[in-house]
């Protein structure tokens, strides 16, 4: 039996996951990253600007990611699909956060290798670089 659970990620959750990916996980294959678009009114409280290119994805923008001499576009929708594929392929703890009143994944338990896999699933639908 398979059950689907809807998980809500905050902008900060996405930024944290992207930080893990781009400052650790994907560095062995990612040649460049450029943020495009997005809604700067979604920048988390307490911050005035985006510091890293990859943060544009967390506020609804796209990322243009260079790999093997090609540019691949990572959209928020592709990111969601990549995260879902990673969740489906792994044993991931999902819990109900009564403060946020929603189901969440503990982003702090996702390491650089996991974050790399999520980005690869999002961009390519499979693991290309191992």
Notes on the protein architecture:
The protein has 130 residues and is an alpha+beta fold. A hairpin with a 4-residue loop joins strand 4 and strand 5 (102-105). The chain has one domain (11-124). The mean pLDDT is 90. The longest helix has 15 residues, at 11-25. Helix 1 (11-25) crosses helix 3 and helix 2 crosses helix 3. The chain has 3 helices and 5 strands. The protein is globular and about 45 Å long.
Number of domains: 1
Query: Helix coverage percent of residues?
Result: 25-40%
Beta-strand residue fraction: 15-25%
Q: How many strands? A: 5
Biggest pleated-sheet summary: 3 strands, antiparallel
- Name the strands of the widest sheet in spatial order: 1-2-3
Radius of gyration: 14 Å
Mean pLDDT value? 90
Low-confidence parts lasting 5 or more residues at pLDDT below 50?
A: none
Total helical segments = 3
User: What structural category do the secondary elements indicate?
Assistant: alpha+beta
Q: Distance N terminus to C terminus?
A: 30 Å
